[in-house]
Design a protein that fits this description.
Layout: E1 2-6, H1 13-24, E2 27-30, H2 31-39, H3 43-66, E3 72-75, H4 86-93, E4 95-100, H5 103-112, H6 125-143, E5 148-151, H7 157-165
Parallel strand pairs: 1-3, 1-4, 2-3, 4-5
Length: about 170
């Protein structure tokens, strides 16, 4: 089984994905890390050098390199489901799980890791909160196309595994 974890940045896709993969004896790929390793530069550098449009095309290429791999948990970037037909493709090739969290719960997590997140670099306070509200609202339609929707509050890898395996 291939499991795609989707949701807004900071919801716990990578952290939970690693643990879920370990529990299921699957491999794990964080799509952003996978792109960085293969491109030889950070997501932040790709955004700065080539822009978001170029990154989104790269993201699609690398998603399709691994999309049909069996026994894999893939944490995709927060924007991945929202471009091209990525969400439909993930739904076709595996189980998609949306880890849902409220913007106010995401803010502290994002502030701890903003240096790795080019879309929110330099934002803080109300500006950051407004941005998260706005972009989450825009993305939720894509996220809700997932096979399963789970709340990210106090979500453990064990509980996530139970959600993934229930019919």
């Amino acid at each position: 089984m291939t499991i795609f974890l989707v949701g807004y940045m900071g919801c716990g896709k990578s952290t939970l994905g690693k643990k879920l993969a370990y529990n299921l004896k699957h491999d794990f790929i964080d799509l952003d890390t996978y792109i960085e390793e293969h491109e030889g530069r950070t997501i932040k550098e790709i955004f700065a050098d080539d822009g978001e449009d170029y990154f989104r095309k790269l993201e699609r290429v690398y998603l399709h390199r691994v999309i049909d791999t069996e026994n894999l948990v893939i944490s995709v970037g927060g924007g991945t489901p929202c471009f091209f037909d990525n969400m439909e493709q993930m739904n076709e090739y595996g189980l998609t799980v949306y880890i849902n969290m409220h913007p106010k719960a995401l803010i502290p997590r994002l502030q701890l890791s903003e240096s790795f997140r080019p879309l929110i670099s330099g934002m803080e306070g109300e500006v950051l909160l407004d941005y998260v509200y706005k972009t989450l609202r825009e993305r939720e339609g894509f996220y809700h196309k997932s096979h399963k929707v789970v709340t990210g509050y106090n979500l453990s890898a064990k509980k996530l595994q139970e959600y993934c395996l229930e019919e």
